[in-house]
Amino acid sequence: MDCDIVVFDTETTGLGAEDRVVSLGAVRLGPDLAFRQALHLVFNPRRASHWAAERVHGLTSAFLSRQPAFLEHLDEVRMFFADARLVAHNLDFDRRMLDREFSLHGAPPLDMLRGGRCTLREWQRRPEGGKGGLDAVIATLGLRRQGALHGAFEDALLATAVLRALDGLSPDLPCGLLPPSNARGLPAAPIRATAPKPRPPRASLAGSRVVITGEFRSMTRDEAEAALLAAGARRQMTVNGLTDFVALGAAPGRAKLRSIAALQEAGAGPRLLDEAGFLALLAEPF
Fold first, then answer.
1. Among 40, 204, 252, 259, which is most exposed with the fewest C-beta within 10 angstroms?
2. pTM of this prediction?
3. What sequence ranges are listed for the domain Exonuclease (predicted)?
4. H or E stretch including 6?
5. What residue numbers bound the domain in which 256 lies?
6. Enclosing H/E stretch for 155
7. How many CA atoms lie within 13 A of 86 on its CB side?
8. pLDDT tens digits, residue range 154-178?
9. Is the dihedral of CA 140, 144, 148, 154 positive or negative?
């Protein structure tokens, strides 16, 4: 079918008839499955998440209460999905949850004129398919998620990889992880990645304590950790007063951002490096 494809995922307050969408992740692809656009939004559902749902997505009521309502992004969402074939790993559920949001605000449901594909059902029909849960499928494809929590955008990326595998292509992720473009209130203080500056207290990675958070486009997490060790640095898992550098990729961890903000408010804190700055320090002799 010669039309764009939108692969999407939702996180919700629960599974019931009154539950709401708390986050939406979507990737728009061309007919050849080439990446075109990405969308990642969070919403204030104006109701508490079921404890089991919150354990899955990790979005607390306190955080969601500061976010915009779905209505503020209604037109943006509909434009992103316009004239596209819809794909999700559990299409019936994700479509139903989005259509409920549209209905609550007097908008028509998602356009299914170009059809839809459920990668869960398609995978289950394969001889080796099994139950077809997303975590099990990506393990089969040699992929893994960044952490234990499920995020709508990460799941949309992983569902895209499954779609590519189903169509006989390599299960590549279409882009790196991106934070919600509309998120409010996190972190508490501004976080700015800085390029390397001449001769701070630590001018190279050798002997430094370094925290890595988020995803890099140029290397995997394992490759970044190996490069750190080769440069004579010590990898830290948490940010504290002893941390010399924090390398910030896309979608950095919330807890690490809060720790950085707290240290900055106290007038301290590590040097922050974006991916280019991190690579520049890796290239320096030690």
1. 204
2. 0.66
3. 4-172
4. strand 4-12
5. 209-283
6. helix 152-166
7. 24
8. 999 999 999 999 999 999 888 887 8
9. negative
